Amino acid sequence: MTTFHCEQAWLGGDTASSDVLIVSHEGRIASVTAGVPAPPGAVVLSGLTLPGLANTHSHVFHRAIRGHSQSGVADFWLWRDLMYSVAEALTPESMYDLARATYAEMALSGVTSVGEFHYVHHQPGGERYEDPNAMSRAVIAAAGDAGLRITLLDTCYLQADVHGAALTGVQRRFDDGSWERWAQRVERLGDTPKARTGAAIHSVRAVPRSAMAPMARLARERGWPLHVHLSEQPAENTAAHEAFGLTPTEVLASEGVLGDTTTAVHATHLTDGDIEALGGSRTYISMCCTTERDLADGVGPAVRLLAAGSPLCVGSDAHMMIDLWEEARAIELNERLVSGQRGHLSIGDLARALTIDGSASIGWPEAGEIAEGKLADLVTVRLDSPRTAGARSGDSLAHVLFAATAADVTDVVAGGEPVVRDGRHLSIDVGADLERAIDHALGGARSARQ
Question: What DSSP letter does each residue of 162-181 carry, written as one string?
Fold first, then answer.
């Protein structure tokens, strides 16, 4: 049993509570009491404490190309070529090293659970490893060793376009041959106390329409969350209309994919009917604003989607930066830019996106809240940094959500156990390990191109 005393903590709503005592037992919260002094022996968390953050959309190996895609990479498709050069060279060993260091970077920013949208399954020529899930297991092990919970959103990726063109080159690593073979492989993964299985339809262009309904049924039967890239690029909408006479959202709706265990990632270029279908089905929306703006994807209608009934959550996606505080406030700030008005989402809306709704999106509904019976996952942000100074004399929750960064995180607790203390990961030298893993990944990519 461990007792934590929080100077301030977010327990729900639009404001924080003061002097909150949290008792954890066997990884879960046994009790929460506000307005009490710290008892002897309590772990004191100075600053503002929230539930551990949920990163709902990650492509972990993309971390290797951060900063390498800002010169001479004019559009999404050229950026994808650069990303594929890294994907082509990955091995289970190099994937583990890169993922472990990247997940540790996430932990430093306050993340305690991650949804990994994983599609690099096989060897470079497309042949299966002796263990067909070798790459998946490397990612799962990396998350656990970095102190994170993970949902491995195993991604079905079977064709190069909506017309069924065969996968070639590096994309052969993604291909299981059929959705049935994909399902057989995924069902061999299994769950652990810190890792759960999920499913993903890569997109309407990468999975045959005939496979979508059976995949959705399987996910619901198994209790897996189901994620899908949706309308990230206008080209996807054009292709879907040409092939099916429908928007991508209408394709998914017609095949029974939408629903309250499904998460649509990006959802940037939508019609009024799309918004109604997504909201009416309670489909979650994972906004990845730093990636969407880096790739010039556009600004999605997050406010309208929330009003229609879709819970919002956030992801760091391609890891142009790993800072979910920025991802959350960007939803509101982007809306201000395109609308010319302020105040679309409440402070509580943004906090829920980071925690409660994000955790539910990736299949951890028992996380994301500081409440009795929930997982004891906590993140504390200092209130005396150059960015957060002054928060104590005002609205600390709003101050943190609109001004704090990953650099302001001091402590992270997962399942009652410390992962980050005083801004340092307790088991990983994150900067040094990232440097080594990225050098290795980029070196392998250069060799693969030669």
Answer: TT-PPP-GGGGGG--SSHHH
**CA–CA dist 242, 239 (Å, integer):** 5
Residues contacting residue 235 through CB under 8 Å, at least 6 positions apart: none
Token pair 């949208």 is at which residue? 117
Structure tokens at 188: 């061999």
Beta-carbon contacts of residue 181 (< 8 Å; ≥ 6 apart): none
Between CA 127 and CA 171 the distance in angstroms is 12
Task: Choose among 66, 29, 65, 56: nearest CA to 148.
Answer: 56
- pLDDT tens-place string over residues 114-129: 999 999 999 999 999 9
Q: Is 348 exposed, middle or buried (0-12, 13-18, 19+ CB in 10 A)?
A: middle
Residues 248, 319, single domain; the answer is yes
State how far the alpha carbon of 188 is from the alpha carbons of 132, 182, 284, in Å.
Answer: 9, 10, 27
Q: Confirm if 16 and 4 have CB atoms less than 8 A apart.
A: no
Sequence-distant (≥ 6) Cβ neighbours of residue 334 within 8 angstroms: 289, 293, 299, 302
What b/e sequence results for 168-190 when a residue is b if at least 16 CB atoms lie within 10 Å of its CB, and e otherwise? eebbbbbbbeebeebbebbeebe
pLDDT tens for each residue of 72-104:
776 776 777 888 989 999 999 999 999 999 999
CB 269 within 8 A of CB 237: yes
pTM of the model: 0.97
Closest CA to 45 of 15, 12, 8: 8
Residue 107: alpha-carbon gap to chain centroid: 13
Other C-beta atoms closer than 10 Å to the C-beta of 200 total 29
Q: Find the domain containing 29 and state its range.
A: 2-51+375-425
The answer, yes or no, to whether residue 202 has pLDDT greater than 70, is: yes
Give me the residue label for tokens 């106390």.
193
CATH number reported for the structural domain that contains residue 98 in this entry = 3.20.20.140
The total domain count for the chain is 2
